[in-house]
Amino acid sequence: MSALSELNQQIALCRKCDIAKLRTKVVPGEGAESADIMFIGEAPGFNEDQQGRPFVGQAGQFLERLLASINLKREQVFIANVIKCRPPDNRDPLPTEIHNCRPWLDSQVELIKPKMIVTLGRYSMARYFPGKTISKIHGTALKQNNIIYFAMYHPAAALHQGSLRKDIEADMLKIPKLLAEAVKVEEAKPSTPPAQQLNMFEV
Ligand code: URA
User: How far apart are CA 155 and CA 169, in angstroms?
Assistant: First the structure.
């Protein structure tokens, strides 16, 4: 069994949060173990909780169309969420839930070793771009410790809002070039504290 499958088994046993009692299935994430890109959303919704798979509802269908716009299939990337259990009534994740789930996400990143992490929505953005505002930084990237971080709106938020939809579609189209030109992205200085490590640039 692969290290990632073993990790998923551990995640399935996790009961750190109260919402673990409410879940139908845990949703660890899925995709290529050697993926170059990880997409990280917020939390499972109704459909994801039923199936144990990330982004399988309406937002997921939109994400698949966005991936197709850059000639990618979901099996070629890794898709995960900041938290692995569905919050009741699709409420926002609580800080304690994000904190409890953080080691799972960190372990996934360590095993997959993606070249690029794409954050989908505010909660995922906050994990990698602390203190930033999504309307200001969507479509921008930074490179830190050899990973390119790229912030996008959440597909569920963008799906039905004309201007956000245009933004998310345009942001997605920047990904191939960013990956290809990864070496040209200036490396942030590791000695500076995290808040200053954000080496933002417009693509
Ligand atoms: N929204 C998310 O953030 N994640 C999912 O898996 C589904 C919808």
Answer: 10
